[in-house]
Amino acid sequence: AVVALAAVVVAGALALGGVWTAVALAVAAFTVAASALARRARTQRSPWFETLGMAALGASTGLIAVAGGVDLRIGAALAIVVGTHTGLAVPLVRAEVRPRERGRARSAAVAALAVLSIAAVALALGGAGRFALALVPRALHALWLRASPWTPAHPNVVGVRETVMLAVVVLVVIAGAAG
To answer: pTM of the predicted model, to two decimals?
Structure first.
């Protein structure tokens, strides 16, 4: 995943040109270095590192969109929405599939709802409030996890659900960008 993220950033950097090339290449270098340090410290499987990594991978979609010619405001909205969606998947999904992490499920759900609220406010302040609708699938997931009694979720079921949720997010973002 780290190599893929670095490749995405480098491709975006080359397409952007100018000062953005240097910024994107610095991001790629930082990503690879952070991954190597986390691996060396044996923290690459920690919840915080997985969450940050997934959020960064999701947010990189904004850079890709800008490199493809999308307006910077839409690219930033895309980065906020997809970065938030993917980053928050980590603590919520871990709580569903790992019995030893179920004790953190309710606090993870509350934290996720707070982060989603902050993302929605950021979108509204950035003039891209129409993209906030794409945060609803993750909000529903967090609310469900907060309210439901714990039953172990089969990883295949979670994988299918996460794929469908991401597809819905992408469709809503595309509709928002077209509107």
So the answer is: 0.80
